[in-house]
Amino acid sequence: MGQKVHPIGFRLGVVKGWQSRWYAERNYKDVLAEDFAIRNIISKELSGASGARVDAAISRVEIERAAPKQVLVKINTAKPGIVIGRSGEKVEHLKRLLEAKTQKRVRIEIIEIRQPELDAYLVARTIADQLEKRVAFRRAMKQAVQKSMRAGAKGIKVIAGGRLGGAEIARTEKEVEGSVPLHTLRADIDYGLAEAHTTFGVIGVKVWIYRGDILSSKRREALTAGAGVAQPSAPRETGERRPERRRGEGGTRGQRPQGDRTRGGERPQGRRAPGERGPRQQGERSRPPRAPRGPRPQGERQPRAAQPSEVQQPQAQTPPPAEPKTQSEGTQSE
According to the UniProt record, where is the region Disordered (predicted)? Predict the structure, then answer.
């Protein structure tokens, strides 16, 4: 069993709207059947997939009922000229058919789709038409993906399933480019399904197109305001000091003295003591040149203190052997 969720139904009430907008109580089933009849008539008259002589590239039909006896039909199409016809003949003929079917006053509004490459149903319908004309399925899928990406889509996924190429065993082929976030509610993802009726059987084509994120008005205003406020700071020249400020005043922060502070947190006033060090200047340093170091005198190095391990233990000295007395010394002593 498949675990795929319908992208449009998943986002209803968040970033997507309903294609039928009306309210009914007891006659709900009758109004719902009337919507199906309206869509079938429009598809039969203007859609090439339903047998019409000319395909008007209709993506979706929206129906609104503001009054009990009034119906507003919005037709989203990539070819408004075909829907209107010469001097409005076709749209008037379609209006008479819908009024005869519903027994109500019908008003038709035509909305042009300026970028059909970003409409999922129209892309799927294009691929299905090519498959019916025996075009290689992989070539048709790749061409549709490339056209959508060139038109500005951030991601597209196309899945075709059935007896592709006349194979005996049906299989599924997929073509993906870019990113298609399926679980992000703010993502504007359009989904379309079309069928190609070939001599080998029916081939289904599914298309997901990611057109970017839909942000709320508050978040969009915050992002635009943040982009306008954030200005790059100009680089500060070397040696330039920032102006000092007192406690409690705004502006840039001054340099903090290195001396001691009093107990109350106030800086000591007056001159610094001779031993205190003033703030270091940020500019060029005026340090006197260092005199060249002369050769180190030899022989003035202090002897290194001996380590306890290096101290030698004193050895017991043995007395020298006594020398024998000569005869002359013996006579003198006598």
Answer: 224-334
User: Is the Cβ–Cβ distance between 95 and 67 less than 8 Å?
Assistant: no
**pLDDT tens digits for 48-68?**
666 666 788 899 999 999 888
Q: Pick the residue with more confidence: 68 or 29?
A: 29
pTM over the 0.70 mark? no
- Tell me the per-residue pLDDT of 266-287, one tens digit each, with 9 for 90 and over: 555 555 555 556 566 555 565 6
Give me the residues paired with residue 77 across strands: 58, 112
212: Cβ contacts below 8 Å, ≥ 6 apart: 154, 187, 188
Do residues 8 and 16 lie in contact, with contact meaning Cβ atoms separated by under 8 Å? yes
- The domains found in the chain, sorted by start residue, are 7-114 (3.30.300.20), 118-213 (3.30.1140.32)
* CA nearest to 118, candidates 84, 159, 76, 164: 76
Q: For the chain, what percentages of helix, strand and coil (3-state, to nearest 5) are there?
A: 30, 20, 50
Identity of the residue numbered 28? Y
C-alpha closest to that of 110 among 34, 165, 186, 59: 59
Q: Locate the DSSP E strands across the chain.
A: 20-21, 58-64, 70-77, 105-112, 155-162, 171-178, 187-198, 201-213
CB 38, CB 101: distance < 8 Å: yes
